[in-house]
Amino acid sequence: MPAPSPVPTPSRDAPAQAWLKSFVPRLRRPLRQAVALGTLSGALVVLQAALLAWVAAAVVEGRGNPLALWPWLLALLPVYALRFVLVRASERVAFAAGASLRQSLRRDLLAKLQRLGPLWLRGQQRGDLLNSLVNGIEALEAYYARYLPTARVTALVPAAILFTVFGVDWVSALILLGTAPLIPLFMWLIGRGAEDMNQQQWLRLARLSGRLLDTLQGLTTLRLLGASRREAAVVEQVSEDYRAATMKVLRLAFLSSVVLEFLSTVSIAVVAVLIGFRLLWGQMPFFQGLLVLLLAPEYYAPLRALGGVYHLRMDAIGAAQRLQPVFDLPEPPPRQRGVAPSRRPPSIRFDQVDFSHPDGRQALRGCSLQVPAGQVTAVVGASGAGKSTLLDLLLGLAQPQRGRIEVDGRPLREFDPGAWLQGLAMVPQRTHLFAASVADNLRLARTDADPQALRRALRAACAEEFVDTLPQGLDTLLGERGAGLSGGQQQRLALARALLRDAPLLLLDEPTASLDGPLQQRLLDNLERELRGRTVLLVAHRLQTLRLAQQVLVLDRGSVVEQGTLAQLQAAGGAFARLQRSRQQVV
Q: Can you give the pTM of this predicted structure?
């Protein structure tokens, strides 16, 4: 019997199918083992049917003593047991191969995302990525662990059974040979629509995942703005659309199963009717007729099994269409190991630096600036002026497309990336605290810090008072992202962590954004003392914070348009003064 032909798919699926096939060489050995075990189990079907047919024929035709047939019936027990062992072994080998590929792909995807960097991740839907990382790779595992072995066994076992039937009854063999191609034909007819629906389903799931994650992350803001009920209604509608689409896919999948069962049942019935008439007319021995009847259901069983797992192929293609573009994205060139920077506060110079985001937005345009060693330099500007990009470039998260960044007169790219990061500390605008104790979160900056050092850092960041009110003090467990703490408390812990690192270079993105009143004043007084003698690049949005800086740079559309001390800029009445007036009007 010819093997069921692969289901034709639209040309847009070709890259996804080629990408799926590219992983087959990794699993060639376990797949061959699984297919060999499954094929051997199918071959035992012939032996099993032959024993049953011979014993039944002997009883019906009255040949010999029926008690003498018991050894032949007992011989069926090891055949059944061996088939069970072979089927289980085939499944275990296939599932082990799929699990190993799942782990490998998950590691590869995480490594890919790490190499692409945070800048790329900022422009993506986190929910879609998480869905691809979890559900997408799970779909690929099922494809390699269940669909591929089943498809290959389907190409071998029916052929072996058909060869046996040809030797017994060529009429029945022709019926089997003629009806078998109808199953893959209907799989193709039904599968064409099912694949399109399944791929649309992946898009809906990605939309739902992204929407739900964004809603959960912004739930506090939604409540403050009174928009939580409206957003809940949107999520409910998206969920309902996904549910309705899922039911359509399932309805089509069940229709496919019904059609396959109907075709195989009708084919078996035709074979049974013809055999019955020939037995009635004495044109066929009972043994041959019963053997063919026992083998006919087994002939269609692999084809029905293939139809039962065909949806796994559709799921895998849908997942591949989401995963392949991520794996194919060009990566920034890896930074080579270089020299280690000194532990002295560095001077930093940007010389005609250009940088554009992956989506084409230009963040810096011919940006030139100087950050003197041991001083605080503040950067101000409207949203989108390029302030955060300066920090990203210094962190090594991105590389300038033109121009150069120098540290102590030496290009930044010549420094060893790990050693460079060891010499700086960063307080981002959105800090991250992990699900661990307060002390463990602080010791991320310095693992050997003793309790006295932790206390000094907390005191400098004005965080000691609220930490002492926590149930277990420094040993209090925090939730993920600092759940249970206010925004200002989280920010002060992040600042304490940066000060604990005692780095010669500090990058601060508005460290007092969530504070007001006397607490803000106390923190600024402490920072004025703690930042003395360090090189600090401070992104500032508040006038009060600028008092820490010896130099203020004004960014506009990616370029420095004004610089000087705070008093000089206020007196000049230029870009800085206009920026302050616009902010006061907004307030």
A: 0.67
